[in-house]
Amino acid sequence: MTPEPLIVRAATPPECRNCNSSVPLDEHFCPQCSRIQSLGRHGDYFSFFGLPRQLVLDPQDLDRRFRDLSRQFHPDFFYNATPAERLASLERSSYLNDAYRALKQPVSRIEHLLSIEGLPLGKSEEGGAKVPPSLLEEVFALNEELDEIRELREAGTDAAMLAARLDSARRPIEVKRDEHERQIGEASTRWDGQASATADERRATLESLRQLLLERNYITNLLATIEREAAAHG
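Request: output the structure for the sequence above.
Response:
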């Protein structure tokens, strides 16, 4: 069964605790009385920043939005406010920091998009326990090479020679990583251009991004394995 996208909008708009006016979920302050709103139910970092769900963002624009909201939410401005408003400023400041960290980096930005669109990676998948089919050849070759390097190390082989073997083993994995970065960039650009695409087309792009990220995580683990082996030789 196809998972449904995460819904972050309430069935009815929340009400301002001060004036009882309806306040859209993505509004930080009541349009009627200008009081800061409690965070309530949220989950979409893009909308929190007033951004569309796009993966290619202008870093300077994101930084500007972060600074502006940081000033608006700063607890110092609510020192003499009601307890509810002071709590709201703290909640929004904390949530803002989480949202900024997630959207600032391309990979965590994609992970968040996948989550709110109903295709989260899942903690069990991030470690890449199962070898992705597209990486079987590289994984097999690397495991064989590392086994040989360990045997050579136990036999007392020169450290410089072992380091050279590790560098040679690292290169094809790094090439694979760079190719994945390129493919992720292309898929991200494709997603941003699909505002008027069909649901199936958008879904296919999301599934492609998800698979690429799973493979990328596995590649990262392979490189970490090589680095640990190199440290053991140090």
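The helical segments are 45-48, 59-73, 83-104, 106-116, 123-126, 136-154, 159-192, 199-233.
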